[in-house]
Amino acid sequence: EAACPIRQNQIFLECCTSYVMIAREANSRDWPAISDISRRSGYNDYINRGGESYLDSGTVIIAEEDTPVGFSKVERLPDNSSWLSGLRVDPDHWRNGIGRLLTVKGIELARSSGSYAARMIVEDDNVRSRSLSEKLGFHNAAEYRFFSGGIDLHGYSLEDANVNDLLSIGWRFMDAGRSDEIPGKFYRKGGNLVFVNDQKTSFQVLSAGEDLIREGEGMTVCRENVYNSAFASLQIMEDFPAGILYEMFL
Question: Half-sphere exposure of residue 64, counting CA atoms within 13 Å on the CB side?
Answer without folding.
Answer: 13
